[in-house]
Structure formats: structure tokens, C-alpha cells
Specification:
Elements: E1 2-7, E2 16-21, E3 29-38, H1 41-47, E4 64-71, E5 83-86, E6 89-91, H2 97-100, E7 112-113, E8 133-137, E9 142-143, H3 151-154, H4 160-170, E10 178-182, H5 186-198, E11 201-206, H6 212-218, E12 222-225, H7 229-233, E13 239-244, H8 253-256, E14 259-267, H9 280-284, E15 289-292, H10 298-311, E16 317-321, H11 325-333, E17 340-344
Parallel strand pairs: 10-11, 10-13, 11-12, 13-14, 14-15, 16-17
Antiparallel strand pairs: 1-2, 3-4, 3-8, 3-17, 4-5, 5-9, 6-7
Helix pairs in contact: 4-5, 4-10
Length: about 350
């Protein structure tokens, strides 16, 4: 079936309206009418060919909220009219050790991304949520329990939410733990909200003094300007966990030095240039760890959504129409968004 979408035909061209083909729902498939789609930095990098390997035409979007329009004969978990979500994954091998542990995001045979991943369907790769509808296997669909009026702001939880929830959960953020969050953007603002709700003492790090009040309003107990050495050094050796959301190359030693013995610095951003090599001594003499984390599995993503619904957590968003996407990308490059753009997918219907 054909649906309207918005995508890029090349990295140096703006996104434009197009018709794309979706498969007819199979026995285990769910057809979803998309209401909202969050805009992730990955969308920008992929559509503009900045990471290499982009498959064109490229239809981005992996923060999807919508309504079930039809279900296959073997679908038991979802029903027509139900509000559901789709995140970064739409398939995995299902039989490797990671998949068997509900960690499809670390599938050892390669998981299938919601867009820009090889697929048997036309045009040979997956096409994402900048579209009117999508068809997904029920295993990769999530239940949404937030109220109707919050649904647009729930969309970014499908990427920014789980990307920050997973390491906070894995490294046991909670009461009695001191957690740092580096960078107050799409990921960082979610990390602050979630860590605060988990009961941790949260300290936000920002290079922009003007963001200090924002950090405190989001739930941080303290906010530190990372360019002020005295502010930073006041926290030396005190953190159990630091979540680093910055996607630009920067000095990691400063944050390693802030860790308590056995503390962990978790990197979420992938810089275009490598970070300077950290001082090994700083790790050895405190049994400290630099780690990484990638989104989350489907079970953990459902856990995150339920946690956020229980605690009233959503993303801070700015709603846009589909036709504003290139302007939104340009603003993202300038960090001119508080803190996540979300597309009103009804606007796609306005495209000729």
C-alpha cells in the first residue's frame, strides 16, 4: 500500500514529499497510523549523509506514536484503536544470546533499524516515521499509557528516553547515589528528569551559564558550569555515575576525576572526531570505568515508558509541521531547541 511521506533523495538536497510503499500486514504485523514523530539528531546526520552509508531515498524517524489501524490474524497483544509506539528497532535475529536476554539492541547478528536498514521490502531498506503509516511486527511495538494530551511529548521517549533510562537503570541510579548529567539537550534533559524521579542526587553540567536555571527547573539538585574550574573541582571524587550526552569530542579526564572510587562515566554521544585519550592512571587508581550504552531492548523500553507514565515524565518539545523539517534541522545544528522537535504527522496530508 502507498502512503505519503517526507524524505531525502540525496544528502545535499532538502527533504521533500514522496509516496512510499508499505507492506500489507502479515499474520504478526500491526499497521499503525502515525500521529507524531520525534526528530532525533540521528535523523539529521542520516538524511544529510553525514555519517556515510545512507540509503536513499531516506525517510527518517524512529520516535513514533500512533494508533493501531489493523492487526494480523496472529496478533494478540494489540487491538484496533489502541495507542502504541515504535522506537529505534523493528527487527532482530531473535535467537542470539543478547536477543534471548531481551537485549535486541545488542543483537549479535545485527538489529534492523526503523529506517536506513537493509530490508526485503521496497526500496530495499526500511523507511521511518516521517510518514502517514508504518507496518511493524508486534514484537517491536510498545504500549503507551500516558494520557492523550501528552502523546506528542511522549514521542521522544522512544529514543531520548530509553537512551538515558537504560544506563541509569543498569548502573543503579537511585536514592543515596550521586549522578552527573553532562549536556542539557535532547538526551540530557531526559536524563535529569529520569534520574531525579529515580531518587538520585542529580548534578547537571553545562557549558552555557544561561542553562543553569533550566537544569534546576528540570529536576537537577545542582547545576555546574563546566567552564568554571572552581565549580567543577568542588565535586571531585564524589560521583557514583556520570551520564555524558555530549556528541562532540571533549576531555573525559575532567569527568573521570569527578568519579568516586568504582564510579562509572557512561558515554552516549558518538563524536565525529575521537575523544582525546583519557589518562589511564585516573582509571587505575580509583578502579573507575568509562563505559558506553546504546538505546535499550524492547522490554526495557516498555519498562521506561511505564516508569515515565507513572511519574508524569515527558519530553519538553516544540511541535512543528512536516514542511518545517529542514528549518528544524538547521536549528538543531545551532542547538536552538528546548529540547526536542516533534512532527505533527497530520501535516503530511497537506502535501500535494
Amino acid at each position: 500500500m502507498q502512503v505519503k511521506a517526507y524524505g531525502a533523495q540525496a544528502g545535499d538536497r532538502p527533504l521533500e514529499p514522496m509516496q512510499i510503499e508499505r507492506r500489507e500486514p502479515g499474520p504478526r504485523d500491526v499497521e499503525i497510523e502515525i500521529a507524531y514523530c520525534g526528530v532525533c539528531h540521528s535523523d539529521l546526520h542520516t538524511a544529510r549523509g553525514e555519517w556515510g552509508g545512507t540509503l536513499y531515498p531516506c525517510v527518517p524517524g524512529h520516535e513514533i506514536i500512533g494508533t493501531v489501524r489493523s492487526v494480523g490474524a496472529e496478533v494478540s497483544r494489540f487491538q484496533v484503536g489502541q495507542t502504541v509506539g515504535v522506537g529505534c528497532l523493528v527487527d532482530s535475529c531473535g535467537h542470539c544470546s543478547s536477543c534471548k536476554e531481551d537485549l535486541e539492541n545488542y543483537c549479535e547478528n545485527g538489529w534492523t533499524g526503523t529506517y536506513n536498514a537493509p530490508s526485503a521490502e521496497a526500496p530495499g531498506h526500511t523507511l521511518g516515521g516521517y510518514s502517514q503509516a508504518i507496518v511493524v511486527d508486534q514484537r517491536f511495538i510498545l504500549e503507551i499509557r500516558h494520557p492523550q494530551e501528552q502523546l506528542a511529548a511522549v514521542a521522544p521517549l522512544l529514543c531520548a528516553g530509553i537512551t538515558t533510562y537504560s544506563p541509569l537503570r543498569h548502573w543503579n541510579a537511585g536514592p543515596g547515589k550521586k549522578v552527573g548529567v553532562v549536556g542539557i539537550g535532547g538526551l540530557g534533559h531526559m536524563a535529569i528528569k529520569i534520574a531525579h524521579a529515580m531518587g538520585a542526587h542529580v548534578v547537571a553540567f553545562t557549558s552555557t551559564p544561561a542553562k543553569r536555571p533550566d537544569a534546576l527547573a528540570l529536576g537537577a539538585d545542582e547545576a555546574v558550569v563546566s567552564r568554571e574550574p572552581e565549580e567543577v573541582s568542588a565535586h571531585a571524587g564524589s560521583f557514583d555515575l556520570i551520564i555524558d550526552t555530549v556528541a562532540a569530542s571533549h576531555d573525559l579526564d575532567m569527568y573521570v576525576n569527578l568519579l568516586h572510587r568504582d564510579g562509572t562515566l557512561v558515554l552516549l554521544g558518538v563524536p565525529d572526531q575521537p575523544h582525546p585519550t583519557p589518562d589511564v592512571g585516573g582509571l587505575i587508581f580509583g578502579r573507575k570505568t568509562i563505559a558506553g550504552s546504546l538505546i535499550g531492548g524492547i522490554a526495557e523500553t516498555q519498562e521506561m515508558l511505564d516508569f515515565c507514565a507513572e511519574h508524569g515524565i515527558v519530553s519538553d518539545i516544540e511541535m512543528i509541521e512536516m514542511q518545517q523539517i529542514d528549518e528544524a534541522y538547521d536549528r538543531m545544528v545551532r542547538s536552538d531547541v528546548r529540547y526536542r522537535f516533534v512532527i505533527d504527522n497530520a501535516s503530511i496530508g497537506k502535501v500535494a
